[in-house]
Write a structure and sequence with these properties.
The chain is α/β, with parallel strands linked by helices and about 350 residues long. About 45% of the residues are buried. The strands form two sheets. A nine-stranded mixed beta sheet has the order 1-2-6-5-4-3-7-8-9, sandwiched between helices. Strands 10-12-11 form a three-stranded antiparallel beta sheet. Helix 1 crosses helix 4 and helix 6 runs parallel beside helix 7.
Amino acid sequence: MAERDVARLRLLRTAGIGPVTWRQLLARFGTAEAALDMLPTLARRGGGAPPRIAERAAVEREMAATARLGARYLFLDDPDYPPLLGQIDTAPPALILRGDLTLASRTTVAIVGARNASAAACRFARSLAHDLAAEGATIVSGLARGIDTAAHVGALPRTIAVIASGIDVAFPPENAALQEQLATQGLLVAEQPPGTQPLARHFPSRNRIIAGLALGTVVVEAAPRSGSLITARLAGEMGREVMAVPGSPLDPRAQGCNLLIRDGATLIQTAADVLEQLRPIDPRAVRTHASPYAAPPPADASDADRTRIAALLGPAPVPVDELIRQSHAAPAIVQTVLLELELAGRLERHAGGRVSLTA
């Protein structure tokens, strides 16, 4: 059990530290050990109590449980961390894996859709996944009922399942055998520690991993406010291709896909349509892991900086770029103040690089 890995996981499991904060702390202090030592000081500067730092014994128990399950950790700065996923600002600092990690280094397509999908849509998803896998693509999905399950079955063994629970928790229960098959023949990915049950708040986090792993996302069938559309939105925000399969306007399950196409998503009818959208992307354009921690260089903020920047914040989320513009402070200073406020429990981060004060 490497000391460096224990420290990195302790930092990640500390209350109030998410992916953005984790990366900024590593960028500022160089090592997780140094960041852990500085957490009380940073929280005090932000006007709050020190965060509850994860105990070493608890992290060691988690790591031992992960090893017993035949799984392993993959940290953001590891050389084989999936490069496409590493591009996004909220890339998970640590993944827990079982299976063939090389699947994530190939052309990867996400196929997602409704849990209560029609039989025709499931058949189409299974066939589309099979045809894409036959052309060398890897299919990633979320192991949910309906479209996700059909996509995994069609693509086996060239498929990645990203789950919202711990690596040892099967959800839905009827997919337990399929989950184990994916872990041994494909790749199973979890962000949550072993034993974690799939709570509602975990699914959007899972969706960002699905979108982040893939060059493009195909939505086969989805209601207007479904989780599949969240995945599609995240893919668009990441600059990835968004594709959708059209359906009957009389079927509510097709409304989400039809709306995506109306708003600019590529209409998909065959695997060839998907590959046509993805093949022009040059793999050399994918960022390497030479600098995995996307954060400004270290900078100390003055009390005047803290007062001025905090005064610009409120309960309504505001883009960080806007704070930089209105405060007339250097980006590194603004990020330092935000980091201190977050560690003090006074700041909440939102999608799209926005922040707000906590209630």
